């Protein structure tokens, strides 16, 4: 039953991509939108070519007052590769370190790119829900390691190999509208393999969670038909991801899948904005092994790798992994604007960095978790959150600060990358 459902979903994704090409027919030759050399990242201000260092400080309920430092080194061993690292320490003795190596070309495999991400943190006053209505606040040691191997299919923008991924458009005046949804002519289609390991140790409260680590693989299909990864105002992106842990004597076997689609609409420019866009996002996910058993355990993933809502990208007015269960739906709508007013390059200290744009956004999220993949259950008593955001591109990295609220209060978010 599960394999049939998986095949059906992949078939539908492919058919939608091909059939939609007849909705917006275009016989003109479509070239990939690639940033020219003059618009790629500039040399930084450290005195070491390609190295940018940025100190920061922030406050949150989880870590209290924190100070940290982040950095990015471009052309790290390969011309278009980069290494990103950062970390912080806080007043309540929480700490975090992150290292990422991105966009590495594998020798003799010119259609493949590789990323590696490592994350390790200790939070001393974090809220953990563990699928319950009320959280406990305590210590948590968290670790995450993931590699991603991305294959670029040789059609659409993928005809240029990995060049479209390595040289994204980052300036408004270079954007071109997307004229067709046909993956053979437009967009970038990729297949990814992502082996991962993730753990969470709750110290004296570790007995409250059934399993403290997970390891497995994610398989992802992605069709990115946007005119920019950073400031898209035309096109769409669709993805399907299958996640699996084979289990062992210490943890259960489980599987989940996720399906997501985003669409981008150009609202034009005004006297006070260089760009306006309306973005719609829809997401759904399921755990087909939820009601199965694996020895003495149910075949369910821990909440930190399972199907959840709340956090950085969905239901942003709620705590991270606030809602956990078998299945989920989530909907978001965002209005994004690039102001014509750009004061950031004139601010002392910031004037030394490449800041091509900043963006304002307002958004509404809605979603629900259920223990059955049922349209009725997933659309009953849905949770909602609203918020506002300021985002900026600094040396090619998108930083975002958001304030969002829901039924359980208001929370501040600081993260990297667009939510979708």
Low-confidence runs (pLDDT<50, min 5 residues)?
A: 1-31, 36-44
Record the strand order, biggest sheet.
1-2-3-4-5-6-7-8-9-10-11-16-17-18-19-20
What class do helices, strands and sheet pairing give? mainly beta
Residues in β-strands, percent: over 45%
Number of helices: 3
Count of strand segments: 20
Nearest-integer average pLDDT: 87
Rg of Cα set? 22 Å
Helix content: under 10%
H-E order: HEEEEEEHEEEEEEEEEEEHEEE
Give a description of the structure.
Helices cover 6% and strands 50% of the residues. By secondary structure, the chain is mostly beta strands. It has a 16-stranded antiparallel beta sheet. A hairpin with a 2-residue loop joins strand 19 (397-406) and strand 20 (409-416). The longest helix has 18 residues, at 2-19. The chain starts with a helix and ends with a strand. Residues 1-31 and 36-44 have low confidence and may be disordered.
Explain the layout of strands and helices.
Elements: H1 2-19, E1 51-60, E2 64-74, E3 82-90, E4 95-106, E5 109-128, E6 136-152, H2 163-166, E7 188-201, E8 213-226, E9 235-245, E10 254-266, E11 273-286, E12 293-294, E13 297-298, E14 307-309, E15 323-325, E16 327-339, E17 358-370, H3 375-378, E18 383-394, E19 397-406, E20 409-416
Antiparallel strand pairs: 1-2, 2-3, 3-4, 4-5, 5-6, 6-7, 7-8, 8-9, 9-10, 10-11, 11-16, 12-13, 14-15, 16-17, 17-18, 18-19, 19-20
């Amino acid at each position: 039953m599960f394999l049939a459902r998986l095949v059906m979903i992949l078939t539908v994704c492919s058919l939608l991509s091909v059939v939609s090409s007849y909705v917006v027919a275009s016989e003109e030759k479509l070239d990939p939108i690639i940033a020219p050399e003059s618009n790629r990242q500039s040399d930084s201000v450290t005195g070491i070519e390609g190295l940018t260092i940025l100190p920061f400080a922030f406050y949150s309920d989880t870590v209290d007052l924190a100070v940290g430092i982040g950095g990015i080194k471009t052309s790290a061993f390969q011309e278009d590769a980069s290494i990103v690292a950062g970390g912080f320490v806080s007043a309540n003795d929480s700490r975090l370190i992150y290292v990422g190596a991105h966009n590495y070309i594998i020798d003799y495999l010119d259609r493949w790119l590789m990323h590696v991400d490592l994350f390790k943190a200790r939070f001393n006053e974090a809220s953990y829900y563990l699928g319950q209505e009320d959280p406990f606040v305590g210590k948590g040691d968290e670790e995450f390691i993931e590699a991603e191997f991305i294959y670029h299919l040789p059609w659409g923008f993928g005809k240029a190999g990995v060049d479209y991924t390595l040289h994204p458009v980052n300036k408004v005046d270079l954007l071109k509208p997307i004229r067709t949804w046909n993956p053979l002519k437009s967009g970038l289609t990729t297949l990814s393999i992502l082996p991962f390991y993730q753990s969470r140790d709750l110290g004296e409260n570790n007995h409250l969670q059934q399993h403290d680590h997970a390891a497995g693989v994610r398989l992802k299909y992605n069709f990115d038909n946007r005119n920019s990864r950073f400031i898209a105002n035309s096109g769409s992106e669709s993805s399907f991801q299958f996640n699996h842990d084979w289990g062992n004597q210490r943890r259960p076997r489980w599987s989940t899948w996720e399906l997501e689609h985003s669409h981008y609409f150009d609202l034009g420019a005004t006297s006070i904005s260089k760009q306006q866009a309306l973005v719609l996002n829809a997401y759904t996910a399921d755990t087909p092994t939820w009601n199965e058993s694996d020895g003495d355990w149910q075949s369910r993933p821990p909440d930190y790798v399972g199907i959840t809502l709340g956090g950085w990208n969905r239901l942003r007015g709620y705590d991270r992994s606030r809602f956990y269960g078998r299945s989920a739906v989530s909907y978001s709508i965002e209005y994004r604007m690039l102001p014509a007013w750009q004061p950031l390059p004139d601010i002392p200290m910031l004037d030394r960095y490449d800041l091509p744009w900043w963006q304002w956004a307002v958004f509404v999220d809605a979603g629900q978790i259920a223990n059955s993949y049922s349209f009725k259950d997933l659309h009953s008593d849905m949770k909602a959150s609203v918020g506002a955001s300021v985002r900026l591109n600094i040396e090619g990295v998108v930083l975002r600060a958001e304030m969002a609220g829901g039924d359980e209060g208001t929370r501040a978010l600081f993260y990297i990358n667009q939510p979708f």
